Amino acid sequence: MQSNMKWIVILLFTITCVIPLQAFANDALLKQSYASKTSDVQIRGSGNVIHILPDDNKGSRHQKFIIRLGNGQTLLVAHNIDLAPRVNNLKKGDRVEFYGEYEWNSKGGVMHWTHKDPAARHIDGWLKHKGKTYW
């Protein structure tokens, strides 16, 4: 019985250590992509909403907001609401997870392709907010 408990404690410790390291690794990759002006990087990460911007209604409509990553970098999220549902009840301070394509710009970069590709030519992306996935 004590042996099983020991393995459970080791497993829980390992899980709690690995998850933050993944987030740190993704923040580091985004920071490196920004510093090297690299685009077209498919990445998963998360951040806290610091600004909610008006929708971009020119061409394909996009819900836009800015998040701050754990490393302090800011990132514009441009979520195509013609192809995916709008993130409901998004507020400043909310945590948002993302999986999409990073494009460099001088202000920290843009995360897009946070939706399924109807033509199946691009990797599907998503946003996650309060337990709900938007894609």
> How many domains, in number, for the residues?
1
What is the radius of gyration? 17 Å
Biggest sheet, spatial arrangement of strands: 1-2-3-5-4
Beta fraction? 35-45%
Query: Would you give the CATH topology?
Result: OB fold (Dihydrolipoamide Acetyltransferase, E2P)
What can be said about this structure in brief?
This protein is of the alpha+beta class.
What's the layout of helices and strands?
Blueprint: H1 2-35, E1 41-56, E2 62-68, E3 74-80, E4 95-103, E5 110-112, E6 126-129, E7 132-134
Parallel strand pairs: 3-5
Antiparallel strand pairs: 1-2, 1-4, 2-3, 4-5, 4-6, 6-7
Would you mind describing this structure in some detail?
With 135 residues, this protein is of the alpha+beta class. The protein has one domain: Beta Barrel (OB fold (Dihydrolipoamide Acetyltransferase, E2P)). It contains one helix and seven strands; from the N terminus they run αβββββββ. Strands 1-2-3-5-4 form a five-stranded mixed beta barrel. The longest helix is centred in the first third of the chain and has 34 residues. The protein is globular and about 65 Å long. The termini are far apart. About 7% of the residues have low confidence.
